[in-house]
């Protein structure tokens, strides 16, 4: 396996070298340079910022990492977990932010669908990328967003033209070598009435290997379009994961967005769904299972910008050992967004005495004719349920596994893709330890 | 198995005094008080606040966020809003070097 990252830190000299090695149009170079200036000007997030108050990144050493090289990724591709038994419409694989594989079923290509490495498609379909890139990404949001905007590399573009319905899922796999950097940018564009499913997952090639993911995801769902998007974060326990993810859902369009997170040493994710046209619908599902000293922090925003939209968020987390999760969720309803129906819920199952979960739901409502509700629960496995199961011949471990599976069932029931339900169920069942 | 890590010189930390040290990607507050050295997690058990930035009075360290106080000798939470002890680590002094061994998790 080749290591394709050069760890020279994120310095002016290494940025200049990175830029010089990339053969990109002027507009993109300008975008990168502007973002780089923002990166230099912005401070590192600190625990004095409300958003970072519960997420301690003082031991992050950015200088240990660096820009991705320009060399193509080589070596054997890792296997994905989400695609078992699925006929794919196309697949992209990247290692250390460098394109490894990109293939698209010809029948979809013939209908005008684009799917492949964003790096490569900028060269061949620059106008489409230029029109949409960063419509749902704010390079100046914080220092990490700025670095991503300046240094994104590899990544994936999915573009489905007006009215095209793709009934085979696309798959995207991002892998990291030990010490590697993933700066992949995902851009999904569904035009009017288009339909597609994208299954994205991450994987570390070295067990416990260090790494840095600084990612960005943009989901642009046009009027009456339907997108199902799954994002399974499965890095090793040595990886720092920072991500800015945003969807724009236009009128009468629908988005089903499932996030699963099992990996990373520390993850800080901003997941933002903006309902921009009347009648838009978004269902957001979250599944987290943590162990060791993992820290996963999710900031979610359901932003109702238009009237008669519906959003429904359900995040469920189970925590083992000394791990920690933080969820800060907000439903924001703009003044004109009447007849909004917004819901958010976060449930946490504590499987050990030293795990910790912070759950902070919030509502900001400026309209006066809406229905917005939220809820949060945190608790241990119920001893009576365990006793009941053991009376019927199950061992303690079997009983705990059954309770944990049951806990997640509510969110699995909402995931409409069978291979994803099965892969997540299996991955979680494998992780459950023996508890006294 | 964790081992002892040399983190500072005795002369680096006055009595009373404290300093933040990093061991294996973990931040620990090294405290010098009552003539001895102690090490506790840099984490308030109430809200995760950075104890190393708090005020040390005798052998009591107060969280800078909400004022919860901890006994640096035992990690015990002495006042609300913290109710659970913070983690402690073993400290020894060899010559003029202070060494810390992270507790097993």
In short:
The complex is a heterodimer of chains A (436) and B (105). With 436 residues, chain A is α/β, with parallel strands linked by helices. Chain A is 21% helix and 39% strand.
Structure description:
- The complex is a heterodimer of chains A (436) and B (105).
- By secondary structure, chain A is α/β, with parallel strands linked by helices.
- Chain A has one domain (12-431).
- Chain A has helices at 12-21, 26-41, 106-109, 118-124, 126-132, 143-151, 383-391, 396-412, 418-431; strands at residues 90-95, 98-104, 114-117, 156-160, 170-176, 180-182, 185-190, 195-204, 210-221, 226-233, 238-249, 254-261, 266-275, 281-290, 295-304, 310-319, 324-333, 341-350, 356-365, 371-380.
- The longest helix of chain A is centred in the C-terminal third of the chain and has 17 residues, at 396-412.
- Mean pLDDT of chain A is 93; it is low at 1-5.
- By secondary structure, chain B is mainly beta.
- Helices cover 0% and strands 46% of the residues of chain B.
- In chain B, the strands form 2 sheets. Chain B has a 6-stranded antiparallel beta sheet, with no helix packed on it. Chain B has a 3-stranded antiparallel beta sheet with strand order 5-6-7, with no helix packed on it.
- In chain B, 37% of the residues are buried.
- Chain A binds chain B through residues 47, 53-54, 56, 58-59, 292-293, 321-322, 354, 356, 358, and chain B through 22, 25-27, 43, 47-50, 105.
Q: Average pLDDT of chain A, to the nearest integer? A: 93
Query: What gyration radius of chain B follows from the Cα positions, in whole Å?
Result: 13 Å
Name the helix and strand elements of chain B from N-terminus to C-terminus, one letter apiece.
EEEEEEEEE
Average pLDDT, all residues of chain B: 90
Strand order of the largest sheet of chain A: 2-1-5-8-10-12-14-16-18-20
Number of contiguous helices of chain B: 0
Give the helix/strand class of chain A: alpha/beta
* Major interchain interface with per-chain residue totals: A-B, 13 and 10 residues
DSSP helix fraction of chain B: under 10%
